[in-house]
TrEMBL record:
<keyword id="KW-0406">Ion transport</keyword>
<dbReference type="GO" id="GO:0046872">
    <property type="term" value="F:metal ion binding"/>
</dbReference>
<dbReference type="InterPro" id="IPR044492">
    <property type="entry name" value="P_typ_ATPase_HD_dom"/>
</dbReference>
<keyword id="KW-0472">Membrane</keyword>
<keyword id="KW-1278">Translocase</keyword>
<dbReference type="Pfam" id="PF00122">
    <property type="entry name" value="E1-E2_ATPase"/>
</dbReference>
<dbReference type="InterPro" id="IPR004014">
    <property type="entry name" value="ATPase_P-typ_cation-transptr_N"/>
</dbReference>
<dbReference type="GO" id="GO:0016020">
    <property type="term" value="C:membrane"/>
</dbReference>
<comment type="similarity">
    <text>Belongs to the cation transport ATPase (P-type) (TC 3.A.3) family. Type IIA subfamily.</text>
</comment>
<feature type="transmembrane region" description="Helical">
    <location>
        <begin position="1020"/>
        <end position="1040"/>
    </location>
</feature>
<dbReference type="Pfam" id="PF00690">
    <property type="entry name" value="Cation_ATPase_N"/>
</dbReference>
<keyword id="KW-0547">Nucleotide-binding</keyword>
<keyword id="KW-0479">Metal-binding</keyword>
<feature type="transmembrane region" description="Helical">
    <location>
        <begin position="80"/>
        <end position="98"/>
    </location>
</feature>
<dbReference type="InterPro" id="IPR023298">
    <property type="entry name" value="ATPase_P-typ_TM_dom_sf"/>
</dbReference>
<feature type="transmembrane region" description="Helical">
    <location>
        <begin position="323"/>
        <end position="351"/>
    </location>
</feature>
<feature type="transmembrane region" description="Helical">
    <location>
        <begin position="986"/>
        <end position="1013"/>
    </location>
</feature>
């Protein structure tokens, strides 16, 4: 940004005019010139431009400095789970290094654990930085909308191609068709008869807006400022001279830029992220307490003392033992943290994005998938989302047999496809003269076209004219023309092309805002001339003297017949239809001999738009048509689905109130006869409410019409403050701030601007509201599945903690080392946890109210269940370790074949005192191809000799966790009613995990890395015997849970009946 622009806020008080103090739209053009000290003929002088540049700065948007990469990287470690992992990795790395320095071998196995944890943290940081670096792209896309050049009058000369960033308030700018407005400007005078500007992306209006030089009330909203042209909007018709009133960040575009930046600063964590953070904090406390408890239990092993006169003396401290129990504490941390959870969540969300993409919802930010599942309010735009954004004729009114009678025809269809629907009760092939006249005018007084593309049928030209072309095709041709005239033309526009062949257009009377009509002069066989006119019904009636009846006869238009036509107009207008009238004039006297020659006297009339009203006089009125942007066919059902799912729908549109209300009634946001006086208000009225929160707290649908960007932002902000999870749709630049602020910003893929897409979390490929509802259902399903694997992984980790705690509490040798726990958490648990993400969705998922964003991941009962399961995991893994050392058989399974020596449980608990035992010897034993011999040091049996017992413990842990994944298929359902094959991916994943476990068992190099040995068949039988009961235990707990819930439901039902 230029220096002047950076200092703008400080120096503004010294400047001449600012939109904050001078409402240019409410002043006459000459008053604006006086205020900005400029005249339109000469423009500003170079000296004045330089002076104003210093005051106002360059005409460009601010560049907000984003966070540095270093800051972004640091932010990725601002997470409790990540910090615990980081500390655990650093400590284990230091301990591994220390052991090597003390004379031990620096084996790779010692460093596997810290290196793997570091790798996880690095990948997590890279993904996080990549996601956050995309956050400011919406601001960059906004700058693409700005015009780069402008045609400016300075020093009484016209300069084309002046860099737009050099414009200052007071500059005189010329705009032509196709130009993009370089700043906010006041229209001084129109060079052409009309000026139309496409500003929908900024204001939400569905059509190009006519501009004027006349002032409007000072309190007008952005849509009402008809004499202003805004930066970034495009001229689609006409040219004009304008006065620059605001530049840079003071423009409406600049305000949007500021709002996007402000919204991006207040982005919050997703509900799941908040829950995981809370879980991480709880976990930190638990780990700390358990570590302290483990140390207190084992303090006697590394710190001893004698009592003298009642006081402890002669303290003996064993650093080696202290380090050993410190390593146990590190193992405890590794066991307690589900290291694989971030990877599994990312995988599940990524799979969810693929499913959603198949339903036309393209997710840009992975966490959005989960947030969608707890959406409580959908704030939807109307145009293009609830409606097709394709104008269509809904009703055709033709004249009857008498002057006081009319005929109405309902027209089906909601798109530009001529085959989409038909005209009800239509006399196909038997069109009377009056209907033929309407068809001819609709076809010829029309500059639009319809084309077939990859995206379906699209309009070329004005949407209203395209809708009339579609009407012509649905009307068909009269029987006399059907055979020959349309032969050889395409099926798509055959009827319009047939009319073109019969009547050749020789002149056009362009639309202007005063007469509100458009006319064409056509010639039939270069002999008969006709003037065909379409436009606002009231204006055409004022200039009509006759009406055409059904049989083609013409009678005088009297007050009674005019009232009948106006009644039809009012009826359609009340139904939020945009109504166009059709009229004609045979053999207009000025054009009887005109065939397009420039030297003909009539040609001069065509060059003077002020003469068009007199040409279009004494018309014969033929009929009228009601058009609208129709609702999408699937939207009413989607609204009903939202209602069933407990999701409130609010419509926020820039369109006018009556049109929006009619659409909302039709699609079911409001009931057909519902009193909506308190539920439908404009954006301005909402901002003026004393208590806007109570308005938003109303049940059912709400409508906000004529809404501006700041209104949308305020609505979203207040809803979020009230604890709602808000999904907001939008397509224009004006929607970007609200999209950024909402929990889920949803942009339109077809009609959406790049700014809106970059600010959004999700893009609708088909711009369809029903796609949002489908995505919410998918989000709920994904969240349920995520809960399943989070419960599974946490219950597994509770088991690992119990195992280590019991080992330390009993005082037996370490049964599982950190690298083995890390393997289980990351690799063995990963596939089943991921496969749980494929659980089939609950068929009633969209019949339940949305979960609250503060709902707990794990209920007290579920936590109790998994504490029981975890305790069993701990008992089983420690138990199998003890069984191998103390028993030669268990449950009839022979364990003595390898020749290992048995010890008593007491000896196993006091293994560290082995050197003091007399006559203690150990026999060598076989494990795979290895022979373990302890002749030189029998006490080594409890260190290197425990390898078989460790392998059994690890295998039991893996097997239990595989069987426990079956328990996680459903929170409450038994495996008898929800068998494993409902999710075949889980069976595949279990096979993969067992396969990976076999890999590290039976590949010698990997077995050495993980400190394990191969197992025999009998030993595998022992593993299964110890592991399988976990299914039975959880089935009993599920049964108790179902029985308890059933009792509570019955009790509530009885109480309700009694009341």
């Amino acid at each position: 940004m230029g220096k002047g622009a950076q200092d703008y806020g400080k120096k503004e008080s010294a400047g001449e005019a600012s939109s904050n103090s001078f409402a240019a739209w409410a002043k006459e053009a000459h008053e604006c010139e006086e205020k900005y000290q400029v005249d339109r003929k000469n423009g500003l002088s170079d000296g004045e431009v330089e002076k104003r540049l210093k005051i106002h700065g360059l005409n460009e948007l601010e560049k907000h400095e984003g966070q540095s990469v270093f800051r972004l990287i640091l932010d990725q470690f601002n997470d409790t789970l990540v910090r615990i992992l980081l500390v655990a990795a650093v400590i284990s790395f230091v301990l591994a290094w220390y052991d090597g320095e003390e004379g031990g071998e620096m084996e790779i196995t010692a460093f596997v654990e810290p290196l793997v944890i570091f790798l996880i943290l690095i990948v997590n940081a890279i993904v996080g930085v990549w996601q956050e670096s995309n956050a400011e792209k919406a601001l960059e896309a906004l700058k693409e909308i700005q015009s780069e050049q402008a045609t400016v009058i300075r020093n009484a000369k016209k300069f084309s191609g002046l860099p737009a960033k050099e414009l200052v308030p007071g500059d005189i700018v010329e705009l032509r068709v196709g130009d993009k407005a370089p700043a906010d400007m006041r229209v001084l005078n129109l060079v052409s008869s009309t000026l139309r500007v496409e500003q929908g992306s900024l204001t939400g209006e569905s059509e190009a807006v006519s501009k004027t030089t006349k002032p409007v009330p000072e309190e007008s909203d952005i849509q009402g400022k008809k004499c202003m042209v805004f930066a970034g909007t495009t001229v689609v018709n006409g040219n004009c001279i304008c006065l620059v009133t605001d530049t840079g960040m003071n423009t409406e575009l600049g305000k949007v830029h500021s709002q996007i930046h402000e919204a991006s600063q207040s982005e919050e964590d997703t509900p799941l992220k908040k829950k995981l953070n809370e879980f991480g904090e709880t976990l930190t406390m638990m780990i700390g307490l358990i570590c302290i408890l483990v140390w207190l239990i084992n303090v006697k092993y590394f710190l001893s003392w004698e009592y003298l006169d009642g006081w402890p003396t002669n303290f003996t401290f064993s650093f080696e033992k202290c380090t050993y129990y410190f390593e146990i504490a590190v193992a405890l941390a590794v066991a307690a943290i589900p290291e694989g959870l971030p990877a599994v969540i990312t995988t599940c969300l990524a799979l969810g994005t693929r499913k959603m993409a198949q339903k036309n919802a393209l997710v840009r930010k992975l966490p959005s998938v989960e947030t969608l599942g707890c959406t409580t309010v959908i704030c939807s735009d109307k145009t293009g989302t609830l409606t097709t954004n394709q104008m269509a004729v809904a009703k055709l009114v033709a004249m009857g047999r008498t002057a006081n009678a009319v005929r109405s025809f309902n027209v089906e269809g909601t798109s530009y496809n001529p085959l989409d629907g038909k005209i009800q009760d239509w006399p196909a092939g038997q069109m009377d003269v009056n209907l033929q006249t309407i068809a001819k005018i609709a076809a010829l007084a029309n500059d639009a076209s319809i084309e077939r593309s990859d995206k379906g049928y699209v309009a070329g030209g004005m949407p209203t004219e395209a809708a009339l072309k579609v009407l012509v095709e649905k009307m068909g041709l009269p029987s006399g023309l059907d055979s020959g005239s349309s032969a050889g033309y395409s099926d798509l526009m055959g009827c319009s092309q047939a009319w073109d062949k019969i009547e050749r257009r020789i002149a056009t009377l362009e639309f202007d805002r005063d007469r509100k009509s458009m006319g064409v002069i056509v010639s039939s066989n270069n002999v008969k001339k006709s003037l065909l006119v379409k436009g606002a019904v009231e204006n055409l009636l004022e200039r009509s003297s006759y009406i055409q009846l059904l049989d083609g006869s013409v009678v005088e238009l009297d007050q009674r017949s005019k009232s009948v036509i106006l009644d039809s107009l009012n009826e359609m207008s009340t139904g939020a239809l945009r109504v166009l009238g059709f009229a004609y004039k045979d053999d207009p006297s000025e054009f009887t001999s005109y065939n397009g020659e420039e030297d003909h006297p009539a040609h001069k009339l065509l060059l003077d738009p002020t003469s068009y009203s007199s040409i279009e006089s004494n018309l014969t009125f033929a009929g009228l048509a009601g058009l609208r942007d129709p609702p999408r066919k699937e939207v009413p059902q989607a609204i009903e689905d939202c209602r069933a799912a407990g999701i409130q729908v609010m419509v926020i549109t820039g369109d006018n109130k009556n049109t929006a209300e009619a659409i909302c009634r039709e699609i079911g946001v409001f009931g057909p006869n519902e009193d909506i006086s308190s539920k439908s208000i404009t954006g301005r009225q909402f901002m003026e409410l004393r208590d806007p929160r109570s308005h938003l707290a109303q049940k059912g649908g709400l409508l906000f019409s004529r809404a501006e960007p700041r209104h949308k932002q305020e609505i979203v902000r207040l809803l979020k403050d009230a604890g709602e999870v808000v999904a907001m749709t939008g397509d224009g630049v004006n929607d970007a701030p609200a999209l950024k602020l909402a929990d889920i910003g949803i942009a339109m893929g077809i009609a959406g601007t790049e700014v809106a897409k970059e600010a959004s979390d999700m893009v609708l490929a088909d711009d369809n509201f029903s796609t949002i509802v489908a995505a919410v259902g998918e989000g709920r399903s994904i969240y349920n599945n995520m809960k399943a694997f989070i419960r599974y992984m946490i219950s597994s980790n509770i088991g690992e903690v119990a195992c280590i705690f019991l080992t330390a509490a009993i005082g037996i040798p370490e049964g599982l080392i950190p690298v083995q726990l890390l393997w289980v958490n990351l690799v063995t648990d990963g596939p089943p946890a991921t496969a749980l993400g494929f659980n089939p969705p609950d068929k009633y998922i969209m019949k339940k109210a949305p979960r609250r964003s503060d709902d707990s991941l794990i209920s007290p009962w579920i936590l109790f269940r998994y504490l029981v399961i975890g305790l069993y995991v701990g008992v089983a893994t420690v138990g199998v370790f003890v069984i191998w050392f103390t028993h030669d058989s268990f449950l009839g399974i022979d364990l003595s074949r390898d020749g290992h020596s048995l010890v008593t449980f007491s000896q196993l608990r006091n293994w560290d005192q082995c050197k003091s035992w007399e006559n203690f010897t150990v026999s060598p034993f076989q494990a795979g191809d290895q022979l373990f011999n302890f002749e030189s040091d029998p006490c080594d049996y409890f260190r290197t000799g425990k390898v078989k017992a460790m392998t059994l413990s690890l295998s039991v842990l893996v097997a239990i966790e595989m069987f426990n994944s079956l328990n996680a298929l459903s929170e409450d359902e038994s495996l008898l009613t929800m068998p494993p094959w409902v999710n075949p991916w889980l069976l595949v994943a279990m096979s993969v995990s067992f396969g990976l476990h076999f890999l590290i068992l039976y590949v010698p190099f990997l077995a050495q890395v993980f400190g394990i040995v191969p197992l025999s068949v009998n030993e595998w039988l022992l593993v299964l015997a110890v592991a399988l009961p976990v299914i039975l235990i959880d089935e009993i707990l599920k049964f108790v849970g179902r029985w308890t819930m059933s009792g509570e439901t019955t009790s509530k039902s009885s109480k309700h009946k009694a009341e």
